[in-house]
């Protein structure tokens, strides 16, 4: 059927000029009005123009750094199931050395007509990376949602675990057991999460009267092992790690040095991923509220897709200290 501007305008409650702008994919129309016009087309039985059908897809891209760190599959599962319940198809893209780059995934998702894109600890989390690519997506009208790595000035909804609160929980737990020289094995220095963790670590160790030592390393088992060697050389009796995978490296290094965990060294992870429960000893860790973060993100993102903007302030979620077997009193400290 040939669309009549007057009928569409009446159904959508907008002017014919607005309908014309939407049908010709021109800028200058508020998201809510644009969505009203598209809905009116569907209700009246008109076929959307080809240029608009690309934007009306029901797929949502999920771009993750990797899958070897169990926290990322946990986010993928939670986000994917919530999206599916809302009628969207999650399309997963993961990066690796020598593999597909984040920008390449973005191009593929745009070509496939994705309705929105979610970035989990993407390049936005690195403060040395500019935000131009994300801004271009917003200029195209693509809704974005980003997990961890908040950056000011980006027109998107952010959902973050409270890194500072998590580190504070870990340090106070260790200090309560008599540890007086505590190390932090965190991620690369330019990452938002690393900077937040270090800021909190230095403040809380000072508040509890403990000596603080910081080592930066990749969020890998090898990185955790290297950071632990350096912290043990500085006589640390306890280490807070920036991820559970980093903590696995700390446990490995302790075994190499014939140290018992937790008698000789206490280790705290961060994430409460699957490995935390099944490591030996099981990891005391800081739990990211993956389920709550994913549910809130999908609710906000679906609203954005339907023309209802989410708040541009950062949504910050409280972590939880999960005490298991990898932490204990300092020898001679109580």
What are the key terms here?
334 residues; alpha/beta; 6-stranded parallel beta sheet; 13 helices; elongated
Describe the structure.
The chain is of the alpha/beta class and 334 residues long. 43% of the residues lie in helices and 18% in strands. It has helices spanning 5-12, 16-23, 31-43, 50-53, 71-85, 102-111, 132-139, 163-176, 192-208, 221-232, 244-256, 274-278, 290-305, and strands at 59-64, 89-94, 116-120, 144-147, 157-161, 181-186, 211-216, 238-241, 266-271, 284-287, 314-317, 320-322. A six-stranded parallel β-sheet has the order 2-1-3-4-5-11, sandwiched between helices. Helix 2 (16-23) crosses helix 3 (31-43), helix 8 packs parallel to helix 9 and helix 10 packs across helix 11. The longest helix is centred in the middle third of the chain and has 17 residues, at 192-208. It is elongated, with a radius of gyration of 24 Å. It starts with a helix and ends in a 12-residue tail after the last strand. The relative contact order is 0.12. The mean pLDDT is 91.
């Amino acid at each position: 059927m040939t669309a009549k501007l007057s009928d569409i305008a009446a159904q959508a409650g907008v002017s014919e000029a607005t309908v014309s702008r939407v049908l010709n994919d021109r800028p200058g129309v508020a998201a809510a009005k644009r969505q009203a016009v598209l809905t009116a087309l569907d209700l009246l039985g008109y076929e959307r123009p080809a240029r608009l059908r690309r934007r009306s897809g029901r797929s949502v891209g999920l771009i993750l750094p990797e899958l070897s760190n169990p926290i990322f599959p946990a986010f993928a599962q939670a986000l994917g199931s919530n999206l599916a319940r809302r009628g969207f198809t999650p399309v997963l893209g993961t990066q690796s050395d020598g593999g597909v780059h984040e920008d390449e995934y973005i191009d593929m998702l745009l070509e496939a007509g994705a309705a929105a894109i979610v970035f989990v600890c993407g390049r936005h989390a690195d403060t040395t990376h500019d935000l131009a690519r994300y801004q271009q997506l917003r200029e195209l009208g693509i809704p974005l949602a980003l997990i961890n790595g908040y950056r000011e000035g980006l027109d998107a909804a952010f959902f973050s675990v409270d890194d500072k609160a998590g580190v504070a929980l870990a340090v106070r737990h260790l200090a309560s057991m008599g540890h007086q020289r505590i190390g932090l094995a965190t991620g690369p220095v330019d990452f938002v999460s690393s900077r937040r963790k270090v800021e909190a670590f230095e403040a809380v160790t000072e508040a509890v009267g403990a000596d603080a030592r910081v080592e930066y390393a990749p969020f890998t088992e090898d990185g955790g092992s290297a950071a632990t060697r350096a912290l043990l050389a500085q006589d640390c009796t306890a280490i807070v790690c920036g991820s559970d995978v980093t903590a696995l490296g700390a446990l490995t290094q302790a075994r190499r040095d014939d140290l018992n965990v937790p008698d000789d060294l206490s280790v705290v992870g961060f994430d409460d991923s699957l490995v935390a429960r099944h490591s030996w000893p099981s990891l005391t860790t800081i739990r990211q509220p993956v389920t709550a973060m994913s549910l809130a993100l999908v609710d906000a993102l679906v609203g954005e897709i339907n023309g209802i903007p989410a708040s541009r302030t950062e949504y910050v979620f409280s972590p939880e200290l999960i005490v298991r077997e990898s932490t204990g009193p300092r020898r001679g400290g109580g």
